[in-house]
Design a protein that fits this description.
Distance between the termini: 18 Å
Number of helices: 2
Strand content: under 5%
Radius of gyration: 17 Å
Largest sheet: none
Bound molecules: zinc ion
Low-confidence stretches: none
Number of strands: 0
Structural class: mainly alpha
Helix content: 55-70%
Order of helices and strands: HH
Number of domains: 1
Oligomer: single chain
Shape: elongated
């Protein structure tokens, strides 16, 4: 990750611990992924309970790299004073 934006030179780490709040965005993504996995399983398959548990954890783990990066980008756009395409 660059330390500052190559286009507008805005800092990607404005203060220590800046990305701590992205945790809450990532949490929301994880809940949304789990609800989506549950809904697909419930509507299409309706498997045994233990399969729901395994599928929800597997879905959250598989999407965690995307959730991690997307939540940090959104946090930076919302609170880092950095605008897209600027
Ligand atoms: Zn920029």
């Amino acid at each position: 990750m660059h330390s500052e934006c190559p286009v507008c030179n805005a800092s990607f780490n404005p203060e220590p611990g800046f990305y701590f709040g992205a945790l809450f965005v990532s949490y929301a993504f994880t809940v949304a992924i789990m609800v989506a996995v549950w809904l697909v399983l419930y509507v299409l398959v309706n498997p045994a309970d233990w399969i729901y548990g395994v599928a929800l954890v597997a879905g959250a783990v598989l999407f965690s790299p995307i959730s991690f990066r997307l939540s940090r980008v959104l946090w930076l756009y919302w609170f880092g004073g950095h605008k897209p395409n600027s």
